[in-house]
């Protein structure tokens, strides 16, 4: 999964880059762009913009405009709100990992953190990884480690990326923030 540019990955070419640029602009509070600004932010030549902008206008995502005029985003359109979730997959990823861990691991791990290119939002290819740092419950029930391996396989299928993990069986002395640089805590029973 391309977490860094998911809209462009789903809609390759000029259309995806233009929609990404418009969605980011809207998210930053902007309502209008000149064609020059949009061409620069989407890396699309001005001559390619018009066809995509015409289609977006027909969908109601943009205010009607004559050819060559500034682009005005219909900021309240439902599609832009849906695209907000695609622009930053981090919250959905953390929630997916948390919910799957609570559902699939009984009892829940004492600590679960995520790191790697998928977790930090820089993944651009299926070979980029999500790494789980897990502290097992005490005592560790029979089958728990096998359930963790299944959780990892399920997350890999859900994401389309490689998911790795390491598991410890004691709570480290260090606070969660110091356990591994770049690790985002998803579950922490010690807090």
Walk me through the structure.
- By secondary structure, the protein is α+β, with helices and mostly antiparallel strands.
- It has 2 domains: 6-87, Arc Repressor Mutant, subunit A (Orthogonal Bundle), CATH 1.10.10; 90-188, Alpha-Beta Plaits (2-Layer Sandwich).
- The protein has 7 helices and 6 strands; from the N terminus they run ααβααβααββαββ.
- Strand 4 (129-135), helix 7 (144-159) and strand 5 (162-168) form a beta-alpha-beta unit.
- Helix 6 runs antiparallel to helix 7.
- The longest helix has 16 residues, at 144-159.
- The two termini are 32 Å apart.
- The model has no long low-confidence stretch (mean pLDDT 91).
CATH secondary-structure class of the largest domain: Alpha Beta
The total count of helices amounts to 7
Instruction: Tell me the span between the first and last alpha carbons.
Output: 32 Å
Overall outline: elongated
Helix-strand makeup class: alpha+beta
Q: Major sheet: size, sense and barrel closure?
A: 4 strands, mixed
User: Got a strand count?
Assistant: 6
What percentage of the residues does DSSP assign to strands (E)? 5-15%
| Whole-number mean pLDDT | 91
- Helix-strand sequence: HHEHHEHHEEHEE
CATH architecture of the largest domain: 2-Layer Sandwich
The name CATH uses for the topology of the largest domain is Alpha-Beta Plaits
Please indicate the count of domains.
2
Which ranges are low-confidence, i.e. pLDDT below 50, for 5 or more consecutive residues? none
Residue share in helix: 40-55%
Within the largest sheet, what's the order of strands? 5-4-3-6
Question: What is Rg?
Answer: 21 Å
């Amino acid at each position: 999964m391309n977490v860094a540019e998911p809209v462009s990955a789903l809609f390759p070419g000029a259309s995806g880059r233009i929609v990404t640029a418009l969605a980011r602009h809207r998210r930053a509070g902007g309502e209008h762009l000149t064609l020059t600004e949009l061409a620069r932010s989407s890396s699309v030549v001005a001559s390619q913009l018009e066809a995509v902008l015409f289609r977006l206008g027909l969908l109601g995502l943009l205010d009607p405009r004559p050819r060559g005029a500034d682009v005005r985003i219909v900021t309240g359109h439902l599609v832009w709100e849906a695209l907000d979730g695609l622009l930053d997959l981090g919250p959905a990823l953390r929630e997916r990992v948390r919910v799957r861990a609570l559902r699939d691991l009984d009892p829940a791990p004492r600590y679960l953190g995520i790191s790697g290119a998928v977790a930090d939002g820089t993944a651009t290819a299926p070979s980029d990884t999500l790494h789980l740092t897990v502290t097992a419950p005490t005592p560790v029930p029979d089958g728990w480690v096998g359930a963790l391996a299944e959780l990892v396989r399920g997350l890999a299928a859900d994401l389309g990326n490689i998911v790795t993990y390491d598991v410890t069986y004691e709570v480290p002395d260090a606070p969660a923030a110091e356990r591994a640089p770049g690790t985002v805590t998803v579950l922490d029973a010690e807090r």
